[in-house]
Amino acid sequence: MINRHLTKLLLLGAMACVAVVVACGGEDAEPTSAPVVQQPTSTSAPAPTAKPAATIVPTPTVKAAPTAVQATVAAPTAGPSGKLTLALPSVGSPIFVNSLAPYPRGIFRADWGMCESLATVDVDDATKVVAQLAESWVISPDQSKMTFKIRKGIQFHKGNGEMTAKDVVFSYNNAGADNPESTAGGGATLLTTWDAWYVEDDYTVVAPFDTPEPLAVRWGWIHGGESSGQCILSKKIYDTVGEEAAVTTMVATGPWDPQVWTAGVELKANAVVDHWRVTPGFAQLHMLEVPEEQVRVAMLRTGQADIIEAALKSVKSL
Predict the structure, then answer these.
(1) Residue 195 above 90 pLDDT?
(2) CA 128: distance to chain centroid?
(3) What is the pLDDT of residues 207-254, one digit of tens each?
(4) Residue 29: alpha-carbon gap to chain centroid
């Protein structure tokens, strides 16, 4: 299995800003008149008839044209570019219905950045639970329930609308909290941990504990990046296309938006630009299924792959 934090390596991005200089024109100058200049007359001798003094006519002052002021427009944000290619023993298969996503097949979606859960473990400290799609949570004083506040504005892939509490409740109840038929990884744990979840409002979810006592202590594991951490998926898609079609309708909320996913062959995904959490550092992700390690090594050496999965004994030669 590939390193579960592989997506952290993929998520480097670059931003650029340009400042615009604004110039302003001065005020118009007032026209001025020159005085009339007269020739001086002599008192010692008769002077010849003097020619009329020339009158200096002031030159009209031309008003300066107003300086055009350029509007300050923010430069477009530079998006990700390029393609990252990986050669792996398996690319898994698309399973976008939680109850049909057994371990380990179900973890590819989250580990590769296609979907997200309410919370996860800190990539730098696996003992810490950090928020993901949940903004905050609280355990009731009697440890009978948890209440989650859901982040606002989180968008599903491919223009499928905003994620709300309805999608969270659907995803966890389908995975096992209220579904004894679920084959999801961690589904049995969810079933024995929770009663059915319910919506309090558009951004608030209530998750009642089935048996309070030690479960409040291990809820972080249940929501974390292990087998019981469930993808939040679109209830609308499930209700619209039905369970069978929803399995391969690749819509979630992760920083990678899957475009092509063929079991045993490849997975192609596009970066979600301006993703709420992190924008990948590459525009495209291409994962190739290459079962033979020797072939994967050859692909790395010849530039056909940027990253491969290899045994430790092979690393030194690379």
Answers:
(1) yes
(2) 22
(3) 998 876 555 555 555 555 544 468 999 999 999 999 999 999 999 999
(4) 55
The model scores a pTM over 0.85: no
Residue 106 DSSP label: G
> 53: which 2 tokens?
């003094």
Asked if 176 and 99 touch (Cβ cutoff 8 Å), the reply is: yes
Task: Name the residue range of residue 273's domain.
Answer: 75-90+255-318
Residue 229 lies in a domain: yes
Q: Where are the beta strands (DSSP E) in 250-300?
A: 256-262, 266-271, 284-289
pLDDT at 172 over 80: yes
CATH code, 267: 3.40.190.10
- The answer to whether residue 300 is domain-embedded is yes
C-alpha dihedral (207, 172, 224, 163), degrees to nearest 10: -100
261 φ, ψ to 5°?
-145, 105
Q: What is the dihedral of CA 109, 115, 117, 119, to 10 degrees?
A: 90
The span from the CA of 227 to the CA of 107, in Å, is 7
Q: Let me know if residue 21 belongs to a domain.
A: no
Q: Domain total for the chain?
A: 2
Determine whether 241 is exposed, middle or buried from the number of CB atoms within 10 Å of its CB (0-12, 13-18, 19+).
middle
Q: Are β-strands 204-208 and 119-121 bridged in parallel, bridged antiparallel, or unpaired?
A: unpaired
- pLDDT of 117: 92
Are 198 and 285 in a shared domain?
A: no
CB 305 within 8 A of CB 88: no
